[in-house]
Amino acid sequence: MLLTENLETPCIIADYAKVKTNIKNMQEICFKYNCNLRPHIKTHKSVEIARLQIEAGAVGITCAKISEAEVMADGGISDIFIAYPLVGLAKIERAVKLARSVKRLILAADSLYCAKALSDEAVKNNLTLEVRLEIDTGAKRTGANMDDVVSLGTAVSKLPGLNLSGLYTFKGMVYEGKPTTDFNEAAKEEAELLNETAKKLSAENIQIKDISAGSTPTGPACAATGLVNEIRPGTYVFYDQSCLAQGACKESDIAAKIIATVVSVADQYAVIDGGSKTFPMDTALNRPPYQFHSYAYIKGRGDLILDRLNEEHGMVRTADGSHTDLKIGELLELTPTHICPAINLQNHIFLNENGILRKLNIDARGMVV
Fold it and tell me: What local confidence, expressed as pLDDT, does residue 205 receive?
């Protein structure tokens, strides 16, 4: 499909050349610091793009859910880390089956409960499962408390059927327990906390092979410390408004945009054909440290704000309440604050290759189990 042809909206268009450049640049950073890259596929959920990352030099991929991992394995990806605690026998049984079909499967645990369940199923199936411990370094979501990691690691290392091989964390833009805008200080703290924990485990004769850290904003700086040997950025493939605000990219690096059509115009606002089923609302507006005022930013129209969404309606207004000057039928190009859930809302996106649009299926779309 030519870019000039009739385009059904709302849709996402990604500049394929930028995607490949972003993949290349992150990989070169990892090569420079002798750090493994294991990108998180939550952003693109595409087997094709995962293959591009592997071909560029990534050691494997990271997934959040067993269903995502199964899709990637069916697509030929053979080295997978599921960076999420598996709770429930059905999911663990699926993980055991997957472990038999790929070259390397790494699972996660942040409690003895999780590890014991993995151990029981591994023993039952005469199998050894590779496990990493997740620790909480400030994000306050999954992850064992730092003070409990040595005792947890000691207990897990004694469980049959498990190979405790690594530590990992997700901290993001947090420093000393509070949000920060300095990705260098956030990354340095993240790497130091992981490295110190690995040393404590080593003192108890528990040898940790892999120390895995890093999001898109903190990943390169984590790698540069030399204290971790793997980073797991995801958003860098496309980048978004959050990455731009965090200083993780330039505006010219942003590869994916949402295209929407103006379908109605009123005195003080206009309506586009994308609502909450197109634009993610997980970024809180008008809150520190970044004070995002819109769920997406409209190219060439810094005066416009998208801060009110129904399921299929997006209301665009100006900050001062004046007329938007938008016309019915006008196409708008928008950069969302968070691209990852935006991709998951689409069955496919379009790749722009030299002005030609190619449909790319979102293979792991909706894989939330």
Answer: 95
* Cβ 296 vs Cβ 334: under 8 Å: yes
Evaluate if residue 5 carries a pLDDT over 80. no
- Asked if residue 220 and residue 119 are part of one domain, the reply reads yes
Tokens of 340: 């990852």
Residues facing residue 132 across a β-bridge? 108, 166
- The CATH number for 209's domain is 3.20.20.10
What is the biggest distance separating any 2 CA atoms in the chain, rounded to whole angstroms? 70
Overall domain count for the chain = 2
As separate numbers, helices (DSSP H) first and strands (DSSP E) second, the chain gives 10, 19
pLDDT digits (tens, 9 = 90+) for 317-362: 999 999 999 999 999 999 999 999 999 999 999 999 999 999 999 9
Q: Is there a single domain that holds both residue 44 and residue 74?
A: yes
- What is the pTM for the complete model shown? 0.96
Q: Pairing state of beta strands 296-298 and 331-336?
A: antiparallel
Say yes or no: 195 and 341 in one domain: no
pLDDT tens digit sequence for 193-230? 999 999 999 999 999 999 999 899 999 999 999 999 99
Judge if 219 and 255 occupy the same domain.
no
Question: Is residue 366 assigned to a domain?
Answer: no
Among candidate residues 201, 234, 267, the one where a domain is terminated:
234
| Beta carbons within 8 Å of 330's beta carbon, 6+ residues apart | 261, 262
Q: What percent of the chain has pLDDT over 90?
A: 94
State the pLDDT confidence band at 3, using cuts at 50, 70 and 90: low
Q: How far apart are CA 212 and CA 181, in angstroms?
A: 22
Same domain, 256 and 160: no
Tokens of 15: 């500049």
Residue 143: both structure tokens together: 């992850």
Pick from 263, 242, 266, 272: which is nearest to 254 by CA?
Answer: 242
Q: Exposed, middle or buried, 89 (CB in 10 Å: 0-12/13-18/19+)?
A: exposed
200 and 275 share a domain?
Answer: no
Residue 347 buriedness (CB in 10 A; 0-12 / 13-18 / 19+): exposed
